[in-house]
Amino acid sequence: MGKAGKALKQVLEDYGISQFGLAVAMDVERNNVYRWVNEKRDPTAETVVEIVRALKSLNPDAAKAFTDAYLGDET
């Protein structure tokens, strides 16, 4: 599976954001977040944008960390 799940898992752990909290911020089911974090399913490009928006609303530093971890030197 992809890099997004690994990046998301690390950011949620580092910033103390629960999967449920992210799910609520995104208005999605928690099992979707679980699948991304555990690399059972990759989020779509549109979903990655939604993840960044939700993380910004919860903790802007977490959103930046996710973007940096996911995109690396591409930003």
Note down, in words, how this protein is organized.
With 75 residues, the chain is mainly alpha-helical. The protein has one domain: lambda repressor-like DNA-binding domains (434 Repressor (Amino-terminal Domain), Orthogonal Bundle). The chain is built from 5 helices and no strands.
Write the layout of secondary structure elements.
Blueprint: H1 3-15, H2 19-26, H3 30-37, H4 45-58, H5 60-71
- How many angstroms does the end-to-end distance come to? 22 Å
| CATH A-level architecture | Orthogonal Bundle
Low-confidence stretches: none
Number of strands: 0
In the CATH scheme, what's the topology name? 434 Repressor (Amino-terminal Domain)
Largest sheet: none
Structural class: mainly alpha
Q: What is the alpha-carbon Rg in Å? A: 11 Å
Mean pLDDT equals: 94
Share of helical residues: over 70%
Which key features would you list for this structure?
5 helices; 434 Repressor (Amino-terminal Domain); mainly alpha; 0% strand; 73% helix; 75 residues
